[in-house]
Structures are given as structure tokens and as C-alpha cells.
Amino acid sequence: MKRALTALVLGCVGSGVAAFAAGGQEPPARVTLTRLDCGATKEPRDVAIFSDTSAYEGVKKSLVASCYLIRHGDDLMLWDTGYPAATKTDPKSPIAMRSTVVEQLRALGVAPAQVARLGISHHHGDHIGQTRDFPGATLLIGQGDWAALTATPAATGFGAPDPVPVAHWISGGGKVEQVRGDLDVFGDGSVVMLDTPGHTPGHHSLLVKLKGRGPVLLTGDLAHFQENYDTGGLPSFNTNRADTIASLDRFKTMARNLKATVIIQHDPRDVAKLPPFPAAAD
Ligand SMILES: [Zn+2]
Question: Residue 84 C-alpha to ligand 1 middle, in angstroms?
Fold first, then answer.
């Protein structure tokens, strides 16, 4: 029995060494991160709604919507798809859009069909607006957000999920991976969707480990601007206050431990933390 156990242990160690050797022959995939412009407020907007403790009464701020292209070797993934493309030609929209995601990708020499994965931080219309332009991609979205998007009757009001841009996936036309907890997207720890519920039930943030630049943490809408991030401020329309506080605590602790660059996706001051488009951080 003892001998059998020893053999088993040695067998495990042996196969581990073999796997390491095999892995050593294959260099890790190169990972890059490019910021895409997915809209910006034309005028500073009232931000009182981003605090349920009246921290921003009468305060106005400019906000941006950021999307990101992640290259992992030959695999392409988008993180969030911003406001709808129609925003660009809508003079009445409070959001300015210089070019759509598809147009920005074209400038990078990337066709929509090359994007295999759409990682979605959450179900709000300023994060999934251009999803419909990538019908062949697999949607990676928190299980709680997918449940909200597909609920009947659909929720209404401010902060309600926006099912229109993902109708193709809801109807079964596209592949959906409902994410429970964290998701190591490529299986090597380089790109990880982090379970950070509270803004919405299935909200996720994204960790991208870059070889040169080091780890980058993209907030999703865990915080909308630096002051809210610093003070643990919470939007009044979040779906769960306690979950948001716990998620912020996890995210900030991870940022400290990894010495990561934190990028608040809606804060214009964080745009310059990555190289200006079309350049990529790596
Ligand atoms: Zn947002």
C-alpha cells in the first residue's frame, strides 16, 4: 500500500515535471492592451447619482466610455463595447463618438470576424452598445447579468439591463459563456475576469497581465471616477450595496498586492495611463 502510494506521488511529480518541460518549449503568448474610444460626454454631466450618500450634490464631471482590445497571441478579445454605434451620427445624443469600435479596429487592420471573444463588464447600455457588430464572437458575461438580460418581464428604469444590443445572443444566434465567479479567459492567468458584483448582479472587472508594463486592472463600473474609488463611494442605482463594498475591497487589495495599474474606465484622467490609440501597451 505504502509503495503504491509512493509510486502514485512520484507519478504525479513526474508528470508535473513533464508538463513544465513541455510548457517551457512553448513561449507564453504575447499579450497587448489597446484602449478604444467608445464615447465621451459632450458637456460635464451632473454626477449626484453616483453617490448614495449625497457626496456630489451639484457636482458636474466629464466622463468617457472606454473599450479595450486585448491580443493574446493570435487571439483577439474586446473588453466592453461602449455606447451604440448610432451615437456617432445622433446630434441629439449627450455623448460624442469620434469613431465606432469597428472603425477603430479597421484602423488596426482587424476585421470584426477576427474578434473571437467579447468580455462584458456588465449589462448597461454604455458597455454593450456595439456588441451587435460582432455576431460571430462568444459573449463572456456574468451569470447574474445574463439572468437579468433574459428575465421576463424585463426590468425597466435607470440602471436596467439593455437587452437590445445582445438580442442576437438572447435568441440563440450567438454563443454565450455565463461567467460564475472569476474566469481565466485563456487558461494561463494572463487575462482574468474578476467577480466584482454589486453595480449589477454579475458585474466583472478585468485583470490583464502585461509582460513589460505589469498587471493592469480595468474597473468596469466598480467605480466611475477617482474620487468615488478613493472614498468607497457608491452609485445610488447599484443593485447591491454590500456586494459593491466587498468587491471594491477585493479589487483594491489585489491592486496593492500585484502593484497593478488601476484604470477607471469612465474617468478621462485615466485614459493617458495607456498609450494613445493606435498604440498598445505590452
Ligand atoms: Zn458605465
Answer: 13
Only one residue has cell 489585489, namely 254
Inter-residue contact 83 to 59 (CB < 8 Å): no
Do residues 201 and 239 touch, judged by C-beta distance below 8 A?
Answer: yes
For ligand 1, the distance from its centroid to the CA atom of residue 186, given in whole angstroms, is: 25
> Distance from the CA of 18 to the center of ligand 1, in angstroms?
45
Around ion ligand 1, residues with a beta carbon closer than 5 Å are 126, 221
31-273: what fold? Metallo-beta-lactamase; Chain A (3.60.15)
- Based on the number of CB atoms within 10 Å of its own CB, is 227 exposed (0-12), middle (13-18) or buried (19 or more)? middle
Q: How far is the CA of 191 from the centre of ligand 1 (A)?
A: 21
Q: From first to last of the 282 residues of the chain, give the pLDDT tens digit.
A: 444 443 443 333 334 344 444 455 577 899 999 999 999 999 999 999 999 999 999 999 999 999 999 999 999 999 999 999 999 999 999 999 999 999 999 999 999 999 999 999 999 999 999 999 999 999 999 999 999 999 998 888 888 999 999 999 999 999 999 999 999 999 999 999 999 999 999 999 999 999 999 999 999 999 999 999 999 889 999 999 999 999 999 999 999 999 999 999 999 999 999 999 999 999
For residue 116, the CA-to-ligand 1 centroid distance in Å is 23
pTM for this model (two decimals): 0.90
Domain range list for the chain: 31-273
Question: Rounded to whole angstroms, how far apart are CA atoms 231 and 233?
Answer: 5
Measured in angstroms, how far is the CA atom of residue 211 from the centroid of ligand 1? 28
